[in-house]
Amino acid sequence: MAETNVPSLAELREVAQDPSAVARAWKAGGGRVAGCRCIFVPEELIWAAGMLPHPLLGKPEPVRNADAYFQSCSCEFARNLFDMALDGKLDFLDGLALPNTCEATRRLYDVWLGYKKDVPVLLLNNPQKLLEEGSLDFYMEEMRRFRTGVEALAGRPVTDEDLRDAIALNNRTRMLLREISSLRKKDPPALTGEEMFDVAIAASVLPRDRANDLLGRLLLEIPRREAPGREGPRVLVTGSIMDNAALIRMIEEEGGIVVADDVCTTMKAYWKPVEKNDDPMMALVRSMNEKALCPCMHPFEARMDFLVELIEEYRVDAVVHFTLKYCHTFLFDAPLVRKELERRGIPATVLEVGHDLSGLGQIRTRVQAFLEMLEV
Amino acid sequence: MDEELPLPSPDLPVVQDMQIAIASKLADITRQKAEGRPVVWCSVLTPKEILFSMDVASLCGNVLGAYASIFGMSAKYCQLAEDDGIARDVCSVNRCTIGVCCTDDREGFFETAFAPPDLVIGSTFPCTAEAKTFLHVAKKYNVPYYVIDVPINTWGDDPPKHAIDYMASQLKGMIDFLRAHGYAFDMDNLKEEVAFARRLNLLMQEIDLLKQAVPHPIRAFDTVIAMTAPLALSKAGRQIELFERLRDELKARVDKGFGVVEEEKLRLLWCGLCPLYDFKLLNYPEKYGAVVVKSMLEFLVGFTCDPETLDPEKPLESMARAQLLSPANPPYRGAVDYFVRAARDYKVDGIVGPVMRSCGLVPGMQRLVKDAVARELGIPTILVDLDGGDQREYDRAGLCSHLDAFIETLLARKGRR
To answer: What is the ipTM metric for this complex?
Structure first.
């Protein structure tokens, strides 16, 4: 494997193969673990409370027991997470923190509250709209409530100093990930899309100090190896939550080079740092408010602006917009995104993919056709 | 009409008048648009008090999607939306709405009931599909779009001040949006509208109590028309007298002991969207002596707020509180409480829970409602697959056979077969 010259990359990719092992190890060492999902959960507060934030990732497996609680026409990712919870695969969790985003997330909150009472669940009631600077009082109050909930979960208070430290630590993670990602701006990119995806996943689940150590080493080590890239269309992948690299790997196997991944497990999560502020809570609120990059948020233009920024910075040739089955927010956005991109002369395709990766053979055919079309 | 359309004829005289008034309102908006008056599209749960107080010619845009389905055109308009890139897995009523906007070739009902928007107002309440559909509509017609962000209710019966303030600021934003596009705002007008809403809600409380009577005095289809009428009627058409007539006609029936089925054996609650393209199905259980006494539409668009919430002297705060406290506002505790209370108050024997494949909202709560109603009242629920908006997904025979089996089981349970 190419990463044999890059031990830090090998180590990060190994973590990405079994992300929950990190949380289990933390728990075995006497720590507490708070599961969370998605970019609108301020992980800094969890870390500042002395707990390990563990962004939950599903497994590409058919849903079994959770279908008794969620209808089978509900978001496959949410159902998959609850299935894992029912199967005891998330037994390391001391709590769960969710934001106010899509129906599926709210539903997960309700079902968890009703049927998984052994693990407390918090819900941050964030606004779903990019707000003006003077209109953040509601967000601030809800962030305070969330902080109180986290403190109760952790069994200890969060001081402002703890929070500032956590913000600084998380910002360093984001900065390192952004620097590593920017190596993909090269031609050919210094690392593949699949490698970068794994790096981002590993960094998201590792304790931040450990992640920063590995990411720092990776930045030093990666220039020492020959770029694994080759010629091919530079592709940006955007869409629903992506908890495994199957689609990215497929695109790269078919000749595309995934240079950017605008999904909530990767670039959306690390792109924007929390700006410095005397009041760390206000810093968090501002940061969350500016993260209106998800279809759950309004206006639509915020997401498009971010996409266009990535397309320009990473010199993207084409966009693959993927949606998970029954992911209504992205399903509604997809045609608008495609039209907007086509208006700008950027080829785009929309793929609806099952979370259990069923139908991936057909998706491969679509990817092949799309990439071939780019060559014409 | 009864033979050609999937609609039964209304039973109560006042409901017949409401139906005529709704049709004439839609025709009137179309005429006004033709005469050059701008039209604002809004979503079902947008506070109408603001629109009426500012004399805005408005249409509930996604009600048009519902009408497409009601008049048997869902296949055409869903397909048009899908051809435009909208996935078949998303809300069929909203898909129909987008489809109606995808063509200038609208026939039949829409010849007199369609006016393209000059402004669009959407809402995050009750679901993603609402705000996203109106985004599509605004993009389609290239018109300004304002979205009301309604926080979900994580506080219970008494939302804190910061939540009320935020919600009120969103409504103020709606007013500012309309003002920026030429509409005048007068606080006294808004107070009058909130006072009207309060009276209407009080009347609806009386009507709700009458509807709880045994035997049930109003057919399910009449209830749907009556409960949705205030959303679809024009400002002038929303007469208190109309709803007083409804109350009086119901009261006369209750006083006489009149029931819509001859020998009422079972009372059902319909917890999901009824098939809009086959409203007659709501009356199907009557052949067993079973009657649908309450349906999901009442929960979604009906009068669920306590009139005491509405203080005309504090109009924005009142409307904010009403939005936050709506049982349709997630998370689902409010919805679960609503259906448990409805099942108890209406003396329900069983619940039919149609699972709409393309809905992100309702399927989410049906298991919770089912368990809560069973736990607290011992009432059983049947969950059935039914997309109430997209006729292409409809299997009437299959659905009826589920209903037959459920009703027969309930009858056997009551020992009254």
So the answer is: 0.95
